[in-house]
Amino acid sequence: MLGRGEIVAAASLLLTFVLIFGGACNRTPAGAGASSGGAAPPAPSFVKLAFVTNNTSEFWKIAGAGIHKYEKEAKVQVDLKLPASGTAESQNQILQDLSSQGYAGIAVSTIAPNDQVALLDKIAEKTNLITFDSDAPKSKRLLYIGTDNYEAGKVLGGRIVTLLPKGGKIAVFVGTFASDNAAQRFKGIADVIAGHKIEIIDKREDNTDRAKARSNVEDLVNAHHDLALVVGLYNYNGPAIAAALDGLGKKGKVLAAVFDEDDGTLDGIESGAIQVTVVQKPFMFGYLASKWMHELATKGDAAKAAIPPNHSIDTGVDLIDKSNVAGFKAKLAELKRS
After folding, report:
1. What is the model's pTM?
2. Taking 80 as the threshold, does the pLDDT of residue 316 lie above it?
């Protein structure tokens, strides 16, 4: 039997064990919520970043691959948001929600930049706002990342001149001319084809309605039997044009010059329904937008000082036709797997 002194010593040892190891077991992990018995230690800072597109097209899967690459490199998370309806109203709702949820950086491809300036400026007061793909130069955004759309339009315009050496009538199709990227692409095309006997006889908007994008082409091809070439300014216009010309039996008879690298566009080039497409570099949209948002959020004034004087980063374009489409498709498949 233990003596009184031994009992006291054992009890003291047991109490020490409970205080040390029991306290350790009940300690709240970093970042976890507080237990009912006391306050939790402060959670580590978590930077919330968002990348907001202008529609739900396949084009943005490539940008998503760029986002994921940066996420892996920097150990951050970037929330990808795609407006289901492709309207400025639906995009505005997403932007308003994000701005009220403590995001440290928001990147957006604006749908109607002139109409969205007031909202964008309010968001820019709360967080680091940058644009990509479709700029809003009149807003207080810090930086634009993407294609110089006017120069891209000039590249496509140059190929249209080559395709129509004797001139001819053309028609242009797009979701909306209100977007900065569409307006700049159209201006670039128009400036280059001027003086080459190439006449733009009509321009049609579809407001991102895929069925209307195709029917617009069918309507004009049927109405103008001397139409020489059709132009698609948005990524989904290429597949819509290819499908319309195929369905009307006009493949190769009415030429097509478009933008972007949708599967239907690249298949159309291989089949001869589309002659050329100017492709952007959406992978870099996602990667660079994520990188800049993260650095602006974590480095503050040092990152702002590194922004180019013109507040723009041109990611460039490539011209794809039948001569290089197979190699481009292989490269694209690799990017989508990354």
Report:
1. 0.73
2. yes
